[in-house]
Amino acid sequence: MELSSRLTNITGGGSDGWAVFYRARRMIDAGLTVTELTIGEHDIRTHDSILAAMNLSAMGGHTGYAEVPGTADLRDLVAARVAKRTGVPTTADNILITPGGQAGLFAAHLAACNPGDPALFIDPYYATYPGTIRAVGAEPVPVQTRPENGFQPGKAALDAAAAGAASLLINTPNNPTGAVYSRDTLTGVAEICHAHDLWLISDEVYDTQVWEGTHISPRSLPGMVERTLLVGSMSKSHAMTGSRIGWVCAPEPVITHLINLATHTTYGVPGFVQDAAAFALQQGSAFEEAVGAPFARRRALTLAALKGQNIVQPVPVQGAMYAMLDIRATGLSGEAFANGLLDAEHIAVMPGESFGKAAAGHVRVAMTIDDDAYVAALNRLVAFAASQVSQ
């Protein structure tokens, strides 16, 4: 007997790009102090009021099977949120509640792609994207962006890759680059989707974390609501990463089939978690702004810490909870820089190469520790970079 190739080929037979992260964790397990600037985990926990709502629901008995599409209250609230943020009329019939955004990405690709279909995604990319595409039996096709263009996907590059493809996955605000896609960029994306009859899968989990520019959902562009599968999540907006609560917003016929998929896979999301999410959404935008405020503040601290030198450059830090740093002036790859920084300073960052070829010569820094420790780590990172140039 053999395991299915679809399962064993999820990472493409190679590394998943997280070797530096795993090495840092082994160092911590060995008793060393390591400053971790690796993963997108808030340095605050889920708010006590949300946890209290979750506990109240569980103790009140909402611990059995919940409705597979999601509870009526939560689907209504998510629909209202998406309608407000995209400007497109949306009802509960357009919403499937999923166990986190990652499950939403998987479901969306299963809806859009047949086995063997090329599925496009933007490089640099969130680490799970190519594996998610392989897991549904499609063929991942990266479309590279360029740091000198702020990592905005270009229409010509998309057009060159799109022949025969079934879908295009984008993420704005972007992890790992921090880029917020402009209206011109998204108009080009929409034109390519129409020209090549692509489904657009729009990962918008960072839509509340915009520090420069404006978040535009491609669902709001002319002719795109019918071909856009929007993936959202409570993880980043409400610091609910461990609660695993997300959604897919799509045309009603798509949601009908995705409900059937959920019935045969996840069988829904725990009711008490959904009730907590409903409570969280009802706290309004001020609550979400408070969750994002530390990253807005640390973005300013990042730019200040990197000012006055030209060895480590931020590109472009417009949104999300990360700063992508250009360290090509050191002559090192992102991987060599990250490993050297970990050895010399016990600071863990993610190599740009973990997120694709386009981010080679960069490192991603997660702005997820307290301000003073964060600035101190950045200063040590810059000093380490300078030491590499002087060698």
From TrEMBL:
Keywords: Aminotransferase, Pyridoxal phosphate, Transferase. Transmembrane segments: none annotated. Residues 35-380 form the Aminotransferase class I/classII large domain. InterPro entries: Aminotransferase_I/II_large, AspAT/PAT-like, NHTrfase_class1_PyrdxlP-BS, PyrdxlP-dep_Trfase, PyrdxlP-dep_Trfase_major. It catalyses: L-aspartate + 2-oxoglutarate = oxaloacetate + L-glutamate. It is an enzyme of class 2 (transferase). Signal peptide: none annotated. Its cofactor is pyridoxal 5'-phosphate. Pfam families: Aminotran_1_2 (PF00155). Its EC number is 2.6.1.-. The keyword Transferase applies. One of its GO terms (molecular function) is transaminase activity. Belongs to the class-I pyridoxal-phosphate-dependent aminotransferase family. This is Aminotransferase. It comes from Yoonia phaeophyticola.
